[in-house]
Fold:
Amino acid sequence: MTDQHSPSHETRLIRAQTALDGLSVGDAFGQLFFDPSVWMHYLPTRSTPETPWRWTDDTEMAISIMSVLRDHKHIDRDVLAARFAERYDADSHRGYGAGAHDLLRAILSGESWQDASRNLFRGTGSFGNGGAMRVAPIGAYFADDYESVVEQADRSAEVTHAHPEGRAGAIAIAVATAWACRRQAGMIDAPPRDLILTAIRHTPESAVRDGLHRAMKVSLDETSLNAAEELGDGSRIIAQDTVPFCVWAAAANIDDFKTAMWATISVGGDIDTNAAIVGGIIASSVGPNGIPTDWLRRRGSLC
Structure:
């Protein structure tokens, strides 16, 4: 990563920003569909809601990751924990889960992120899908080196997810995003199923990895609903119930952002997080021009 042929910091940031845009648009789009009236009105016709789209904690935390990459060129966990807490303190009403509220309040009160993360869930640490939902910018930034993707994704997840499953979920999604970036750059000439296989190769042994193996057995021509029945839809808000389906959904819809979003939200579950994860991967595959401009406008500016 240090030789003369490595991309510049600015080039990496452009890739990371594209992933963040896809993630945040997916997040903001997906959260609309928790409203049953929106679900019933818009999903059958796949017409786009006109109301302003408000992003959630998925995007809030990804913005912090982006800022750390911009300022430090790697994941400094102390800085990242502080920025998570600062953004939470500024706006805690973005759909944070109960564990995240507890952890971020503990950090704000002066507890170390190490202790706060380990103490969650009676000392087991979190294996939720929060590490995966926000990690796409890391996969894009370090896309040229899978080893760095794995290392930096793990570091980013550890701040809030001490449990190995939560960290494995973040690694799998970061690797999938890196694969998508490589494909967009013409570095990969492989069928979409290779995205799943690459994630398996780099994800540590875990229930998440077992789920990715199951995803390899699901045809990419299968319906999203049937795939989710086999792989999970995020309803349990844990990495092993979220990541396998999201990686499958990205592989199955790798060339079309809109199609990927509609296919992802159609299964229900943790709708905004599923759409955020898939959105970050797909945006990295189709590039910034592949994200619909009207969807970006409805999401609004990131701050």
